[in-house]
Amino acid sequence: QVQLVESGGGLAQAGGSLRLSCAASGLPFASYAMGWFRQAPGKEREFVAGISRGGVTTYYTDSVKGRFTISRDNAKNMVHLQMNSLKPEDTAVYYCAAQRGIAPRVAASQYDYWGQGTQVTVSS
């Protein structure tokens, strides 16, 4: 059974930081590119960041560039999202996702597996 389990969400003030983690099991983790998505109430699911299999290539949506960093540890089957300089508009449920490709992808439909999500709330 493939499982992706997010953790690290919570409350933060504007300008603060949170570090999200995703633990993967049941899949050959190093064979999957990984991504982070988020979804706010009443809004569509949005790509946030992606990382290639080996972690060399990363890609970010414009709104988080310079603030968020995606990374992975293939030895531990984990992917992380370091979120700095948080803004209220970052408030959403954050999901990690896996896709059997090399390069990061931005479309949710291109991902094969999803975690259950973790809530991030940023107050002004």
Question: Mind explaining what this structure looks like?
Answer:
With 124 residues, the protein is mostly beta strands. It contains no helices and 11 strands. Strands 2, 4, 5, 6, 9, 10 and 11 form a 7-stranded mixed sheet that branches. The chain has a 4-stranded antiparallel sheet with strand order 1-3-8-7, with no helix packed on it. The radius of gyration is 13 Å and the shape is globular. The model has no long low-confidence stretch (mean pLDDT 96).
Mean pLDDT: 96
> Structural class per helix/strand content?
mainly beta
**Number of extended strands:** 11
Number of DSSP helical runs: 0
Sequence of secondary-structure elements: EEEEEEEEEEE
Biggest beta-sheet profile: 7 strands, mixed
- How far do the termini sit from each other? 40 Å
The proportion of residues forming helix, as a percent range, comes to under 10%
Shape descriptor: globular
Portion of residues in beta strands equals over 45%
Radius of gyration: 13 Å
Low-confidence region ranges:
none
Features:
124 residues; mainly beta; 7-stranded mixed beta sheet; 4-stranded antiparallel beta sheet; 11 strands
Topology:
Elements: E1 3-7, E2 10-13, E3 18-25, E4 33-39, E5 46-51, E6 58-60, E7 68-73, E8 78-83, E9 92-99, E10 113-114, E11 118-123
Parallel strand pairs: 2-11
Antiparallel strand pairs: 1-3, 3-8, 4-5, 4-9, 5-6, 7-8, 9-10, 9-11
